[in-house]
Amino acid sequence: MSHAPGPDLIAIPGPSPVPARVLNAAHRASPDIYGEALAQVNLQVMAQLKRLAGTSAHLAPYIGNGHAGWEAVGANLFDRGDLALVLTSGHFGRSWAEMLEGLGVIVERLDFANLPPDPARLAARLAADPEGRIRAVMLCQTDTASATMADIPAIRAAMGDHGALLVVDAIASLGCAPMRMDDWGVDVLIAASQKGLMCLPGTVFVWFSDKAAAQGATGLTSPWWDWHGRAGAGALWRFWGGTPPVQQIFALSEALTMILDEEGLESVWSRHDRLARAVWAAGEAWAAGGSGIRLSVTDPAARAASVTALTLPGADALRAWVARECGVTLGVGLGAPDPAGALRIAHMGHCNAGVLLGTLGAIEAGLVALDIPHGPGALEAAAASIARSA
Ligand SMILES: *Cc1c(COP(=O)(O)O)cnc(C)c1O
């Protein structure tokens, strides 16, 4: 008999759980979109988003998903035939590189398999580009498939005085892990509403520095994608290139108030770090004794704060079991060498110790039910990790 009826637990890395407060904030009839009240809320959200990213730079919002953010960056930064250096650490970085190629950008990849970029390799490549052909260095702070965390300050340092722009996809990490765009010298940053921002899917944000802004439009910059008009908008419709996503603006306002003004950004980062460590403690316990289970990223410093990837024989059957019997949805083994034998546990955005321990407990039950070999003590280890870091 299933134990699933009751609240669903969604532990997938996006769309992440949306707090009831945020849903309720969106649940309203559209006001006058030419009225002052909505324009003010929009301006306040733009200011909150700059605080979230640690920047006083420019911000262009778009209606769209993360892929739309990728396209926005491509269309504003490059002309056909320009050279971009993409540091790939998994499925998302590789998809981004393909999308840029589709726009006509020449893409060179430095591939790090499913591990974070090595700054030394980047430095060596840039040293071999004295004429400055490489226009931008691009990477995911967290590649959501490999569940890695790049060291952005180390990447910036490795760029030395090469003139390339530093472009970071923080879609799976903004609002989960530290990001100090201005202090770290990030030129362009992308994040979408449905991950660490705890909102509905449908909006994406591109922050860009004065240096990135200074180059002006390129041959790829069509009017709708042009970030200058949006970032400098005086009228509400210009921010969004047409009708604003009214209900989403209210949802964003609520979510960003929760993150920035109620819990506080540093506390939000700390919560993600502490929850991640509890998952890693469980994963290490399951891995004991040569069970065949292992955390996909070995070095804790290279692991994401918002999602953990596990190699786990029988993962597909386990995911089906915990969904059917416990009402818990886990992430698929996207981009793993054997996707059917891998899964991902998200601890992204609206997540706390109760939800996380419930998710881990459901996995433990599934391992037992399906006779999947696993080391003992995972739940005790996770609980102890939570207790120690409370
Ligand atoms: C989810 C994600 C994307 C893609 O976002 P969509 O909204 O699915 O288009 C891109 N990059 C990263 C790092 C992501 O996590």
TrEMBL record:
In terms of SUPFAM superfamilies, this protein maps to: PLP-dependent transferases
Necessary cofactors: pyridoxal 5'-phosphate
Which keywords are on file for this protein? Aminotransferase, Pyridoxal phosphate, Transferase
Q: Does the keyword Iron apply?
A: no
The reply to whether Transferase figures as a keyword in the UniProt entry is: yes
Which family would the database say this protein is a member of?
Belongs to the class-V pyridoxal-phosphate-dependent aminotransferase family.
- Record protein name field: Pyridoxal-phosphate-dependent aminotransferase family protein
